[in-house]
Specification:
The chain is an alpha/beta fold and about 240 residues long. The protein is built from twelve helices and five strands. Keywords: ATP-binding, Nucleotide-binding.
Length: about 240
Amino acid sequence: MNNNQTVEKLKQMRLGAMADLHLLHIRENRTTDITADEYLALLTDHQWEDHKNRKIQRLLKQATFRGQAALAEVDYAQQRNLDKNMFLRLGCLDFIKRKENIIITGASGVGKSYLAQALGHQACMMEYRTIYANTARLLKRLKLSKADGTYLKELAKLLKADLLILDDFGLQAFDSHARESLMDIIDDRYNRSSTIILSQIPVSAWYDIIGEGTIADAILDRIVNSSHRIDLKGESLRKGALKNE
C-alpha cells in the first residue's frame, strides 16, 4: 500500500485533516495497536471536528462582529437591571428555534452591543448564520443597492441569516428609502428568523422615529409583539474602562 498516494488522494478530496493525521500515525507507527474500525473512526472524527471548526470560524468572520464577546463574561451587577436567569435562558438560543426577537434598550455605553454580540457569538458556535450590522449603515447600503439593481440580492442575504443583529437603531432619522427597506427586512424575517435590535431610544418613541404611521404600525407590530425585552440601566461601562486605565 502506497501511503503517499493515499494521503494525496485524501487531500484531493478535501479531507486534509484526515490526511495529515493519517500521515502522522504512519510516520510514528501508531497504527499497530488499534483495529481498522477504531482507526477509521479516529480519522473520521478528526476530519469532522476540523470541518466543524472551520465552519464556525467562517460564520464568525461573516458575522462581522465589532468585538469579542462571551456569555461567560456578562456582568450581572444589580444596577444593570439584567435578569441573569432570563439572559442565560436566551443564551440557550431557544429563541432562535422559535423565531423570536430580542429588543435591548439603554443609554450609550451600558453594554447593549456586548450582550447582543455575546448571543451572536454563541449562535455562531452553534452553527447559526449570524449578521451584525449598524442599522444606519445597513440601510444606506440597501439604498445604494436599489440604484445598482442588487437590492433583492442584498435582502436575500439578510433573510438567510438565522440571527440578524441591528445595532444603534433609530440614531439617524428614517427617510422614505430607509423606512421601506426596514419594512422589507422585518416583513421578510417575520416568523422565519430572529432579530436583535439595540437602541438608546425607548421603544415607546420608535413610532415617531420611524415615521409614516402605516409603515411604523406594521414594523412595530412585527417586532415588538414577538420580542424579549431587556432595558439596561446603570452608568456607562466605557467610563469605567477609562477610569481603570
